[in-house]
Design brief:
Helix content is 63%, strand content 3%. The strands form three sheets. The chain has a two-stranded antiparallel sheet. The protein has a two-stranded antiparallel ribbon with strand order 2-4. The protein has a two-stranded antiparallel sheet with strand order 5-6. It has a domain at 126-417. The chain is mostly helical and 425 residues long. Helix 2 (20-43) runs antiparallel to helix 6 and helix 11 packs parallel to helix 14 (283-303). The protein contains 18 helices and six strands.
Length: 425
C-alpha cells in the first residue's frame, strides 16, 4: 500500500524532470510577468496594475458555469465569443476565488484586485500546455536538449502576449491541445488525436483552421470518424449553452463582435458588417480564412502524400504538417477586419516548433517572434502602420520556420535532411 502511495508523486516528479525546460520557462515567465504587472505601472506614472481586462469577463462566465447559471454564459458582462470550453477551463480558479469570498467585479483602470495574484499564475500555468506540447514534439523528434531549452524559453516569452498581456488562456490551451493532437496523429493514435482536437475546438474554435490540413494528410478512410469524434465535445457544450439561452449563444458565436476604435482596424474593415456600439462582426470574415485553409490543405496533402498509407509518420511529415497548420493560423490575422495583437501568437507557437530543424532557423525565428510579440503592443490604429507590418512579420516568421530545404541540417544536428526523403529521427 505504501509503495502504491509513493508511485504517484514519483511519477509526477519524473514527468517534471522530463519536461524540465518548459516547466522552468513557464514558471519563470509567470513570476516575471505577474511581478511586472504590479511594479511597472508606478514607474510610468500609473496607479493601478497592468491587468489583462479580457480575462475578467471570461472568469464571470466561468463563475456562472460553476453555479449552473448557463443562460448567462453569453450575456453581459462576460463578453464570451468562444465556445463554452473557454470558460470551463477557468472554473477551478474561480471556485478557489469563490471559496475565498473574493469579488469578481470587473476592475477599473486604477484597480489593484487581489484575485489577480491567483488568476494570473493560474492562467499562465494552464497556458503553459502550449510550451509543454512544443517540447513533447521536440522530444519525439530526438531534438538535442540545448535546442529544446531554447525552444522552451522562446515559446514562454511569446506566451506572455496571449496570457498576461491580453488574458486569453483559451487560445493557448487550444493550440497546445492541437499540437498534442498532431503528435498523437504522427504516432498512429488516430482516436486519441481526434479527442484532443475536439477538446481544443471546444475551448477555442480557432484551431478549426488546421483541421483541413490534418484531414488532407491522414488516411482518407479514417477522416469521417475523425471528424465525428472531434466534433463531439464542442457540439455537446455548445448545445447545452444553446438550450439554456439560444439567442445569446447564436449572436455571440456567429457574429463575434470586435471594436475598431479599441483594437487595430485592417484594410478589410470597410467590408465588415457594422454592429451596435461601434462594433463590427468578425465572424463572417473568418469564413474566408476557413476557405483559404482548404487551399492550404490541398498543398499539404500533396507535400505529405506518402504519409496517407503510413501507420506512423516520420519527422519530415510531422514538421511539414505543423508548418502548414501555422500557415492556416496566420490566415486569421490576414483576413480579420479588426485585429488584436495576440492573434499573431499561434503562428509563433507552432512556427517555433517547425524551426527546430537548424540552429539558424530556430534562433532567427525566436528573434522575430520575440520582437513581434512586444512590437505588436504599439497602439497605432492606421492599418498601414500596424496591420500591414504585422502581416509581413508573420510572413517572415513562416519563411524562417519552413522545416525543409534541399540540403540543410536536420533536427539532430547532422547533415542531409531533405524534404523529398526526410529522415526518421
Amino acid at each position: 500500500m505504501i509503495a502504491r502511495w509513493l508511485t504517484v508523486p514519483l511519477s509526477v516528479a519524473q514527468r517534471l524532470v522530463r519536461r524540465g525546460f518548459p516547466a522552468i520557462s513557464v514558471a519563470g515567465m509567470t513570476v516575471i510577468a505577474v511581478t511586472l504587472t504590479i511594479v511597472w505601472p508606478p514607474v510610468v506614472g500609473k496607479i493601478g496594475w497592468a491587468l489583462p481586462h479580457d480575462l475578467w469577463g471570461t472568469m464571470v462566465a466561468a463563475h456562472r458555469v460553476l453555479h449552473g447559471q448557463l443562460s448567462g454564459l453569453y450575456t453581459r458582462p462576460t463578453g464570451l465569443i468562444t465556445l463554452p470550453g473557454g470558460a470551463l477551463i477557468l472554473v477551478p480558479i474561480v471556485a478557489v476565488i469563490d471559496a475565498a469570498r473574493l469579488s469578481l467585479h470587473v476592475p477599473g483602470p486604477d484597480a489593484r484586485p487581489v484575485i489577480w495574484l491567483l488568476a494570473g499564475p493560474y492562467e499562465a500555468a494552464i497556458s503553459g500546455i502550449a510550451v509543454f506540447a512544443a517540447d513533447a514534439i521536440a522530444e519525439h523528434l530526438a531534438v538535442p536538449r540545448l535546442k529544446r531549452a531554447v525552444l522552451a524559453v522562446a515559446s514562454a516569452v511569446a506566451l506572455w502576449n496571449v496570457t498576461i498581456r491580453w488574458g486569453h488562456p483559451e487560445d493557448a490551451v487550444a493550440v497546445g491541445l492541437l499540437m498534442y493532437s498532431m503528435l498523437e496523429l504522427a504516432r498512429g493514435r488516430t482516436g486519441r488525436s481526434a479527442w484532443l482536437f475536439g477538446f481544443a475546438v471546444a475551448v477555442q474554435p480557432l484551431v478549426l483552421l488546421g483541421l483541413p490540413v490534418a484531414l488532407a494528410v491522414m488516411n482518407p478512410r479514417r477522416a469521417a470518424r475523425y471528424v465525428g469524434v472531434a466534433a463531439t465535445p464542442g457540439v455537446v457544450l455548445l448545445g447545452v449553452a444553446a438550450i439554456a439561452n439560444w439567442h445569446a449563444t447564436w449572436v455571440a458565436v456567429t457574429r463575434q463582435p470586435n471594436w475598431p476604435s479599441i483594437d487595430h482596424p485592417t484594410l478589410w474593415l470597410p467590408l465588415a458588417t457594422p454592429l451596435h456600439g461601434g462594433a463590427v462582426a468578425a465572424g463572417p470574415a473568418r469564413v474566408i480564412a476557413i476557405v483559404v485553409a482548404g487551399g492550404c490543405a490541398v498543398a499539404a496533402g500533396f507535400a505529405c502524400r506518402s504519409a496517407r498509407d503510413a501507420e506512423t509518420w516520420d519527422a519530415g511529415t510531422l514538421l511539414r504538417l505543423l508548418w502548414w497548420i501555422a500557415v492556416t493560423m496566420a490566415l486569421r490575422s490576414v483576413f480579420e477586419p479588426v485585429m488584436v495583437a495576440y492573434y499573431a501568437w499561434p503562428v509563433f507557437a507552432v512556427g517555433l516548433v517547425t524551426a527546430i530543424t537548424t540552429w539558424p532557423r530556430l534562433l532567427a525565428t525566436s528573434a522575430v517572434a520575440g520582437t513581434l510579440t512586444f512590437a505588436s503592443q504599439a497602439p497605432w490604429r492606421n492599418p498601414w502602420a500596424w496591420w500591414v507590418p504585422m502581416v509581413a512579420g508573420l510572413a517572415v516568421t513562416l519563411l524562417l520556420a519552413v522545416p525543409w530545404r534541399p540540403v540543410a541540417e536536420d533536427v539532430s544536428g547532422s547533415r542531409g535532411y531533405r524534404s523529398e526523403a526526410p529522415a526518421t529521427l
